[in-house]
Amino acid sequence: MDRPQAERLYDSGKEPTVAKLLEYDEQVKQLKNKISQLEKNSQTSSKPPSSDSPQDKKSKQRDKNNKNGTGRKPGGQLGHKGVARNLIPSEEVQETVHYYPDQCKQCGKSLPQDETANVVGEPLRWQVTEIEPIKPTIIEHQCHTTLCECGCCTTATLPPGVGKSNFGPRLTAIIAYLTAVLHVPRRGTREFCEILFNVTICLGSVQNQLETTSKALEPIEGELKNVLPQQPVINADETSWRDRWLWIFVTSTFIYFHIAKTRGSDALREVFGEIYHGIFCVDRWGAYTKYHKGLMQICWAHLKRDFQGILKIGQATQAEDAIAFAQTMLTLRKKVMAVWYQFKEGYLSRAQLIENTQPLIEDIKQCLKDFTNSQDKCAKSLAKKLLKRFDHLFTFILYEGVEPTNNLAERGIRPAVQWRKICFGNRSDNGAVLTSRLLTVTRTCWLQKRNPLEFLVEAITAHRTCNPFPSLL
């Protein structure tokens, strides 16, 4: 609107002017709401942190610095206990080089340059770690033919596991490790083998070794899948995987990955059957609530971001109900978490945890009830949804092994998300199966603090020699 139009509107009288101002005010609120939605990141919504842009991350760090008023740069701060490399014991060192001073720094007299020197005290030790050029070990197996006195010729056979591949179990395991843990593409793996290991290998052979690994891990993955439905507590999450969905299920002792063509409850039935009798720790994705009718724990980290998102929208649109709802819920959540961390650190018993959180739970329930008739759509909608699922908000207070957040699944699935950003998922069903098996084994080794490379070597060796497979249980 330009000035002449504004003057004509003013001259038209009170009612048209007020109507137009109210119309413009409603448009401004809608635009601010759209801007807030576009500015959402992992701190104000259920978006994963990996979806944040570099600008979001810089802004997040800047806000964090301004919040505590320090303005400190990232990294170790003054007084932080440093970490230094420890010296390896002398008996474990492969080579020791001795140095002696050639002359006295006071009188200039020449000094012995060998063990005859009058050495005092302990020497200054400085260790250098180096990798020598790697030369592959090539073993040739020759099967000879022997002529018997009876005139029959008999040819020796290769021992079990030798004739299965031109590449040994450790090299095959390294190829699988590069793919699953370091997310190196097939061509990068081939170059890695040629440049670092001096092993000539084609892309087809790289793929063949990965397929061999997939077969070796099949019984190991099957064993975990069979016991998964019997686990008392499971943290679950899912992420897109090309035209499929990658699901993660985290127990106290192992992690199981499953790639399905759906994000719906059918994927859960495929893994758990018709009924799962344990406790699910999840976000508010509808597939979980549709499938599981038992105990659940809704992630409070996701809820925190929901409250922060409503607060941001409310501040942008000057919606008092939204601001009041978000601030109240954030305050009560913080108080519940403070009591929870006292329990986690051993200052409270389970009975004291239940007793100390009961008033806060009542306050949260009352707050949700108060805002079910709110004028703000966001606050009203979330309040109604949480009130409907209220029994799923505080399962962690009553049951052992249940956490208030879904961080176990979030952390477990993060390397898979990083891998997806490089490979963009799988095009074939066999590729999807390979991915789920590699992730299941390597992430379980991470959870159990085991060496994933050594476990892969053991599994591939067992597969080629037809010996019992190693277990992750």
* Unreliable parts: none
User: Helix count, per DSSP?
Assistant: 16
Give the biggest beta sheet.
Answer: 5 strands, mixed
Number of strands: 7
Report the β-strand fraction as a percent range.
Answer: 5-15%
Which sequence of strands runs across the widest sheet? 5-4-3-6-7
Gap from first CA to last CA: 71 Å
Structure, described:
By secondary structure, the protein is α/β, with parallel strands linked by helices. The protein has a domain of 176 residues. Strands 5-4-3-6-7 form a five-stranded mixed sheet. Helix 4 packs across helix 16, helix 6 crosses helix 16 and helix 11 packs across helix 12. The termini are far apart. The mean pLDDT is 88.
What's the structural blueprint in terms of helices and strands?
Layout: H1 3-11, H2 14-38, H3 54-68, E1 145-147, E2 153-155, H4 169-180, H5 186-196, H6 203-227, E3 233-241, E4 244-250, E5 255-260, H7 265-272, E6 279-282, H8 286-291, E7 296-298, H9 300-317, H10 320-344, H11 350-370, H12 377-388, H13 395-398, H14 407-423, H15 429-447, H16 452-465
Parallel strand pairs: 3-6, 6-7
Antiparallel strand pairs: 1-2, 3-4, 4-5
Keywords:
single chain; about 475 residues; alpha/beta; five-stranded mixed beta sheet; two-stranded antiparallel ribbon; 16 helices
Short description:
Helices cover 51% and strands 7% of the residues. It is an alpha/beta fold.
